[in-house]
Design goal:
heterodimer, A: elongated, B: alpha+beta, 3-stranded antiparallel beta sheet, 21% strand
Chain lengths: 217, 375
């Protein structure tokens, strides 16, 4: 049976494609793509589509894609009706709480406002800590919000920390670590068990080969 | 001009869709009926309190709620198992078990917006109350398999699990409720990374950690049961697996062997389940179309302790996979002039013994019957 894999466009795309190549998949079409969005593997009976991170979950939950490769950041924010079988360890970054150094929101007494693109993650984090905060959804350049006084702090993704530093913000806490995960539609996992297990196994082996390579260096 | 639409997560069924759904429903109900299940219809609305009694942890935000004239909270029913438990404990309180009920009703749950999910679905199922032996598990599974067959599917899978595999192990290790809930969630979603990290934080012996790490992967054909025995560190868990093996032998003898798979990492959120649980899958649907299991402690909460097992089919999910292109029976049109309406109605009545007849009063000389002009 044929398998469909939804890949996340953008940040994760390059590393995912590299991993697939290492796993022995025929993905030349993915490397030389024009405006095409659906690709056929030249070696295996696999179809790929490139989609936005949130849509990756949607396609997998509906079973249109059997497998999806998507960042944990997106998974944490959305619905969870799928199996999350593999951590690819690529696209690593973390969720952090940051703010201006002179205004530590954890020490503030009174109403705390948090700006974030990820309200669900932020809500869960502060609830866990027993803090009742007001969340303000911001869509881009979240770092700007505390500087302009819209909020006391932010919950956001941090890769290198350069943007934060350049804007004079400091990290107060890490919410969690993030990396790319392989998610699988529940029904697909029952009905196409062998095919899906084979893909997972191939990926695992490629990851292991990568680790061995690093170790031997 | 006013614009109209339907609420989020609902759907209109038109023409052929209604017919497909009715046929599917009848095919399934015929199976239930042949097993001696009797139909029950309950109100579309229930007291919120009834559901609160049924579910220990209720997902409040998933219920449609409103108030009655006394200020009591009402909800649109979210399932049929709880209403049937209520009926069994009240209307049937003096009847001797076993009781066999079937139902087909719309159930309501508020789902995430704009995710293409259904908030209203038709649930068609059975509840077998008052029996708790392995034989009643088997009878119910066979009934479920017959229903799956009725769905006209060349390839279907019925997947069986038993929550005792997980909970017996937890009890043995003295895990508290919160730890169990977290572990159950990670295992049920096969969220391997989180499961791994969480187990690291628990002070468990290695064999126990190994067991929990393996659970999500202990799914597939019956040989996983044998494999599972290797990881069992606790006699009760072993006994549960032996029970599943006996069940499998029986299902094989009945010819269902290659339709059955197992998933020992199935630990669902519905907290009234208490024994075997199962789900049916068909090709072309991204979620299970049939689900059920044993729930021996639910009826006790309504004051009539009695073991129970049941399952239901979500008709709307199945319909999505059925390509029913079958033509409707032809409709013929009887055209008549206004002056001959009595004669026309009499003629139509006569014709209806054989055909489906629609009438059209128009500007014509005499009564004319046109076949095949139906849209």
């Amino acid at each position: 049976m044929s398998i469909s894999i939804a890949l996340t466009k953008g940040r994760l795309e390059k590393e995912t494609v590299k991993l697939l190549e290492k796993s022995g998949y025929g993905i030349t079409c993915l490397k030389e793509k024009g405006r095409q969005l659906v690709f056929q593997d030249s070696v295996k009976d696999v179809r790929y589509f490139l989609v936005k991170a949130n849509d990756c979950i949607t396609y997998v939950q509906h079973g249109v894609a059997d497998i999806g490769v998507v960042g944990k950041d997106t998974l944490l924010e959305g619905d969870k009706d799928y199996y999350e079988l593999l951590d690819l360890g690529i696209g690593k970054c973390r969720f952090i709480v940051a703010g201006l150094p002179e205004n530590n929101l954890f020490e503030k007494i009174g109403h705390v406002k948090i700006g974030t693109k990820y309200p669900n993650i932020a809500k869960a984090y502060f609830l866990e800590r027993g803090m009742d905060v007001e969340l303000i959804k911001i869509d881009g350049s979240v770092e700007l919000a505390p500087i302009l006084g819209l909020c006391d702090g932010i919950v956001d993704i941090m890769e290198t920390g350069t943007t934060l530093k350049e804007n004079g913000l400091v990290v107060f806490d890490t919410v969690c670590n993030i990396s790319a995960r392989v998610i699988v539609n529940k029904a697909s996992f029952k009905l196409k068990r062998d095919e899906i297990s084979a893909v997972l196994e191939d990926m695992k082996n490629a990851l292991k080969a990568g680790e061995d390579h690093v170790e031997s260096n | 001009m006013k614009k109209f639409s339907i609420p989020e997560g609902t759907r209109d069924l038109i023409l052929g869709e209604c017919k497909s759904k009715k046929e599917l429903r009848e095919a399934i109900e015929d199976v239930f009926d042949s097993y001696g299940y009797r139909e029950i219809v309950t109100p579309s609305i229930e007291y919120y309190q009834t559901y609160l009694t049924g579910f220990e942890t209720l997902k409040d935000e998933q219920m449609y709620k409103f108030f009655d004239h006394n200020g009591r909270i009402l909800t649109l029913r979210m399932d049929m198992t709880v209403p049937i438990a209520r009926v069994a404990a009240t209307k049937f309180k003096d009847q001797l078990p076993p009781l066999r009920f079937r139902y087909c009703a719309n159930v309501y749950k508020v789902k995430e917006y704009f995710a293409g999910k259904r908030n209203e679905v038709t649930d068609c199922g059975i509840e077998l109350l008052g029996l708790c032996d392995e034989a009643s598990d088997l009878e119910t599974l066979v009934c479920a398999l017959e229903v799956m067959e009725q769905m006209n599917q060349a390839s279907y899978t019925l997947e069986i699990g038993n929550i005792h595999v997980f909970y017996s192990a937890c009890k043995d290790l003295n895990l508290d409720d919160e730890q169990m809930a977290l572990l159950a969630d990670f295992i049920d979603r096969k969220s391997m990374r989180e499961l791994h990290e969480y187990l690291e934080t628990l002070a468990l012996k290695d064999e126990a950690k190994m067991f929990f790490l393996q659970l999500p992967w202990l799914c597939g054909k019956a040989d996983v049961l044998q494999l599972a025995l290797q990881y069992c560190f606790q006699p009760n868990v072993k006994e549960t697996i032996h029970e599943l093996q006996r069940l499998h032998e029986a299902l094989c003898a009945l010819g269902y062997g290659d339709r059955i798979t197992y998933d020992l990492g199935k630990v669902p959120h519905l907290n009234y389940y208490s024994g075997i649980i199962f789900e049916g899958f068909i090709e072309g649907v991204g979620t299970s179309v049939l689900s059920g299991g044993r729930y021996d402690s639910l009826l006790g909460k309504f004051g009539r302790p009695m073991p129970a097992i049941g399952f239901s089919v979500k008709l709307d999910y199945v319909l999505a996979a059925l390509s029913n292109t079958e033509e409707e029976k032809e409709i013929i049109t009887l055209c008549y002039p206004r002056t001959k309406k009595i004669e026309a109605i009499q003629k139509a009545k006569e014709l209806r013994k054989q055909y489906r007849v629609e009438m059209l009063c128009e500007d014509c000389e005499d009564i004319v019957v046109k076949g095949g002009c139906a849209k």
